[in-house]
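ok so i was messing around last nite and threw this chain in just to see what happens. nothing serious, just curious
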Amino acid sequence: MKSLSITSSNLLFPLLMVLWLSTCTSCHAQKEKNIDKVYATKAPGPGGTGKVYMGREIARVIGTGGGNWLERSTRQEDENSLLAIDNMMLKPQSVVADIGAGTGFYTFRVAERVPQGKVYAVELQDAFIATLKERKQELGLNNVEVVKGGTQSINVPDATLDLAFMVDVYHELEYPQEMLQAIHKALKPGGKLVLLEYRAEDPKVAIRELHKMSAAQVKKELEANGFKLHKQVDALPIQHFLMFEKEDR
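result:
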């Protein structure tokens, strides 16, 4: 009987492993199938990935080589970033996430506005993360926390943010639907999400087409993911300022 028991155990373990692997494979296949329903593909356009969300081709990410562009001396004049920050409805104790923080051009300016609050500088690219950490130390802004984000997550605790914002970032997100869901979870009830995007409607805005967005397209995508338009500011020189409020789901 002892010999039979050992034999049965030896047979049972591989069987359980097969069943577990089969279940994992099935779950993964289902996830991939769901993603396929959300996104389409096409031949990539100039600067594009060939991946399409709600009729919009997702742009290729501008890498860390674009750091000088983010910190150019004319950026305030070009974009009036201080006016954009003025319209973010910040309070001294606000908890904020700068998603796709890059070199921290906005991060550290916002951090000065929330001295009793906090700014999560969420970034995917390691070179930018290193820059953010160096600048945080140089400036002595202890209310900034640098966070390594993912392609489908921002790695910020649920229901902690008063405001999240993305500056010329949203159009490059590899998984916009999943990222909007992650941001929705991270926002407090009634929390806000601001998108700044170069205006696709204006041919005078000298930016590649796939790196611009129309207000109508932004609204379509965000309203499909649990956000409603709260405020639109049309006073910026070349960008849309669109603030959305988290809706209960």
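not much to say yet. Residues 1-9, 11-21, 27-33 have pLDDT under 50 and may be disordered.
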